[in-house]
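Fill in residues.
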């Protein structure tokens, strides 16, 4: 598969052979390539922003002691309880639960997959695999899948054999090489297929195959399908329990100011849709740096925008029976929190109230207290959910390497 993408420059570039871009875009000099030696996140920053102090919030990649994990500051609705469930797992992100009760969790910056064991009284963890490039996990029918930017591994029979040796599936999945926005979130769908996003290799650029898209595969890596395009960076998705439609979060681009473009909550009513990147963002905002006529024509706009630079991550429909009836099939979204904004935004978990078709979507706070708006200081960054058999819900915190348990007392 041919891989091409182009940074936005002042030159009249031609990107040939790109089926997604039938109209040659107009290009702006405002969002050029990354300066030599500069980090990738600076791409798209204008000359006027060259002295901006804004930069990604560094993760804490050493174990955080419990007395520095401020669960007492967290607020949940009446009747709910949130407590520290496990800690000592720096950089923890998305989680998957095996049939034997063990939980596996990927990371980004630290390159580990953790295995977490619950003996009923306490949780312990070990590094299951290490030194991978931003690995994510998924579990399906006794098999653990681990996918990094440049590697795909399968651990068969993991329930019975926690020391199972991996089967290398990298060649089958044909993983593209670019790192920027290429860290993974994996999930098996109701159809039994493995869904894998491939984010844009830039902040803002013209993209061709295989980036800015969502794919699905058979569990053995065969039968690859591109089911959606124009997706800048989705880090979470789930299927509506009633309709079976896929909903996903997507990050808006950086360096267009404090207030936008906002992150997105999207609904995929069918396969083959285009969600706009790089030409169209949020509720129909044409990109000022990558331009073409009628930029938002044919684009599927979001069900709801989720706030400026919010870093929307995990998305989970609640299927349990512990929470009150009004939470059944409700959608939870973790907003990890902004960096490309002078005043922080996000750093919370929200519930989105909407009908199955996405009408009248309303954002309702669910877990707050990771950030103090008065001082603009944060201490935690919520990222992913895992529903437990008893109906409680686990929530991971990448910043302090912890997992919280959210329960409801009838």
């Amino acid at each position: 598969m041919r891989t091409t993408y182009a940074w936005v420059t002042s030159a009249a570039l031609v990107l040939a052979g790109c089926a997604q871009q039938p109209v040659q875009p107009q290009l702006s000099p405002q969002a050029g390539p990354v300066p030599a030696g500069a980090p990738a996140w600076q791409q798209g920053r204008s000359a006027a922003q060259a002295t901006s102090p804004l930069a990604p919030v560094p993760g804490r990649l050493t174990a955080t002691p419990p007395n520095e994990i401020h669960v007492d500051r967290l607020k949940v609705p009446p009747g709910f309880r949130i407590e520290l469930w496990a800690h000592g797992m720096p950089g923890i992100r998305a989680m998957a639960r095996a049939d034997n009760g063990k939980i596996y969790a990927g990371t980004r910056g630290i390159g580990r997959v953790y295995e977490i064991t619950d003996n009923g009284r306490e949780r312990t963890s070990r590094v299951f695999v290490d030194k991978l490039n931003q690995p994510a996990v998924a579990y399906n029918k006794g098999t653990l899948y681990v996918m990094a930017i440049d590697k795909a591994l399968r651990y068969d029979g993991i329930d019975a054999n926690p020391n199972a040796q991996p089967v290398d599936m990298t060649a089958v999945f044909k993983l593209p090489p670019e790192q920027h926005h290429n860290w993974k979130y994996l999930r098996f769908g109701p159809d039994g297929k493995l869904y894998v996003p491939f984010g844009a290799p830039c902040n803002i650029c013209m993209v061709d195959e295989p980036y800015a898209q969502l794919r699905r595969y058979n569990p053995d890596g065969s039968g690859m399908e591109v089911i959606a395009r124009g997706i800048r960076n989705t880090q979470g998705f789930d299927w509506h329990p009633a309709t079976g439609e896929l909903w996903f979060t997507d990050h808006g681009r950086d360096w267009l100011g404090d207030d936008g473009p906002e992150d997105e909550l999207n609904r995929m009513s069918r396969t083959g849709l285009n969600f706009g990147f790089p030409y169209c963002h949020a509720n129909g905002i044409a990109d000022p740096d990558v331009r073409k006529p009628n930029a938002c024509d044919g684009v599927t706009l979001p069900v709801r925008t989720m706030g400026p630079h919010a870093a929307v991550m995990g998305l989970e429909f609640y299927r349990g029976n512990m929470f009150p009836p009004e939470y059944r099939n409700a959608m939870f979204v973790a907003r990890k929190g902004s960096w490309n904004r002078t005043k922080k935004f996000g750093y919370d978990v929200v519930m989105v109230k909407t009908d199955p078709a996405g009408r009248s979507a309303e954002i309702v706070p669910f877990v707050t207290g990771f950030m103090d708006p008065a001082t603009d200081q944060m201490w935690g960054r919520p990222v992913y959910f895992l529903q437990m058999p008893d109906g409680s819900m686990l929530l991971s915190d990448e910043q302090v390497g912890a997992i919280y348990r959210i329960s409801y007392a009838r």
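The CA atoms of residues 86 and 122 lie 8 Å apart.
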